[in-house]
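Entry 14. Structure prediction run on the chain below.
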Amino acid sequence: MRNLVIILFAIYFITSCKTRTTEPVTDNPEITSREIVELSDEQIKAAGIETGKIEKRKISETIECTGFTDVSPKDKATISPVINGFLKDIFVKDGDFVKAGTRIASLTHPDFIALQQQYLENKSQSAYFEQEFKRQGELTVENAASIKNMQKAQSDYWAVQAAYKSGKAQLEMLGVNTSVLEKDEFVKEFYLITPISGYVTNLTGNKGRFIEATDVFCEIINHKNLVINLNIFEKDIHKIMAGQKLDFYPVHSKDVKYKSIIQSIGVSIDNSDRTTKAICMFENSDLSLHPGMSIRAAIIISEKEAHVLPSGAISNYNNANYIFLKKSNGFIQKQIDTGVEQDNFVEIVTLSDEILNSEIVLKGGYYLLSDSEMEE
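Output returned:
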């Protein structure tokens, strides 16, 4: 309330004290009013009026879109057991960072013990059938009638050798060092091991719970490198190409902006919303962003040098834009056309030597709107 009273007092003070003289109107269509608003130094100070020159800046034409953050398939791992088992111990919790190769849980099951037993039996049989195959081969050299026996011995050897190698591969997938088994020492538990470094998420399960090979125990996500999925409307697709830069920010935090580059563009249209996907990569070095965040983005499709003024220098009334030029005896109001607005600066399309060379009101222009326009 106190601030409102101060503002109203300033308006009253200025509008009640300013005087006007009128210059002849020229044929220049840029000028809608040559009314000069005269203010004293005290009035200018009270209104907070500040002046400066128009400046040149690089501005961008952009396309606005929305999207979300995600991780690439190589940075996300789903952890499931190779075989069914009961959870014996859990070594992590949601949010923990783990390095590739870390044991995150242990399991046990009778089938795991049986698998080791079968491996040792096949190993033993493999040695027996190998010797039998060699023996039958030697007999065949002396007696052609033994060829059939040799062929059977060969078949038996190959079959048990295949079972032996298969069992060994399965145990190695479970992290079992088979050389330990060859010393007749059975391994009682097997482990879930993470294949990538990242953070544990969506962990389910507890000690004693039975989980199957098709169950998901947890996920590991490395969100240091994020994927940005952008929704590009059908009408804008022809303007978008790989290599274009963009600025984006989470919808919950407009104050912090990030930069990225378009890597690829989809080739099909989603019929539900008539959009396609554009994929961007982002190095999330400070880990401030997380997968699944909604974002807004501005894709830069062109850049140019333009004359601009701060957004606060533009006064809008009756759908028209105005600026005020400082003259020796006051301020002159001029209607202008504007272009791209970016980072609180507005492109000024209407240019003349007068605008380029004059001091322009950058702050406080609203208070200088003429009475004639206010009455309209």
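The longest strand covers residues 294-310.
Filed with the rest of this week's runs.
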